[in-house]
TrEMBL record:
GO CC, any one term: mediator complex
UniProt subunit comment: Component of the Mediator complex.
Role this protein plays: Component of the Mediator complex, a coactivator involved in the regulated transcription of nearly all RNA polymerase II-dependent genes. Mediator functions as a bridge to convey information from gene-specific regulatory proteins to the basal RNA polymerase II transcription machinery. Mediator is recruited to promoters by direct interactions with regulatory proteins and serves as a scaffold for the assembly of a functional preinitiation complex with RNA polymerase II and the general transcription factors.
GO molecular function: transcription coactivator activity
Protein name: Mediator of RNA polymerase II transcription subunit 20
Domain of life: Eukaryota
Similarity field: Belongs to the Mediator complex subunit 20 family.
Subcellular location: Nucleus
Parts forming coiled coils: none
GO biological process assignments: regulation of transcription by RNA polymerase II
Keywords for this protein: Activator, Nucleus, Transcription, Transcription regulation
């Protein structure tokens, strides 16, 4: 009789020994890679939504102190969007280098440079962690899922 909460299980090739479980409007759990096996054993308590599998695969580039990952976001067999992840490696407090990141992204993204991510609003002067990256990917994937649900009108 209880309403279920969504939990997203995510993996990142930068952290191959970790598994990230992000709860809807809640915390991010970081576990070892065997977390998936545990979830299979708990299938009586969790319902798997296989149809919602979404991923971003692409290429990783390094330019001086910047790490840029460009990926194609796919849902099932079809491409749904493009992800661009930019990291300034020497800095661990994201707010300290946000202006530098913006300037760098504007050099190759132009008008499509995004605004400050929502995860920064709660981090202020905290150390940026891999969980913060996963939260941003989850936000991107949820935007793409919502775009998929909007009916498309045909043009004659």
């Amino acid at each position: 009789g209880q309403t279920g909460k969504l939990m997203y299980v995510m993996h990142n090739s930068e952290y191959p020994l970790s598994c990230f479980a992000l709860f809807e409007n809640g915390p991010c759990l970081i576990a070892d890679a065997n977390f998936d096996t545990l979830m299979v054993k708990l299938k009586g308590f969790f319902q798997n939504a296989k149809a919602n599998k979404i991923e971003s695969r692409g290429t990783r580039y390094q330019y001086c102190d910047f790490l840029v990952k460009v990926g194609t976001v796919t849902m099932g067999p079809s491409a749904r969007g493009i992800s661009v992840e930019v990291e300034y490696c020497p800095c661990v407090i994201a707010n300290d280098c946000w202006n530098l990141l913006m300037e760098f992204m504007q050099s190759f993204m132009g008008n499509h440079t995004p605004g400050i991510p929502s995860v920064f609003g709660t981090k202020h002067d905290s150390i940026y962690s891999p969980a913060d990256t996963m939260v941003q990917y989850m936000e991107l994937f949820n935007k793409i899922r919502k775009q998929q649900q909007v009916p498309v009108a045909g043009i004659r």
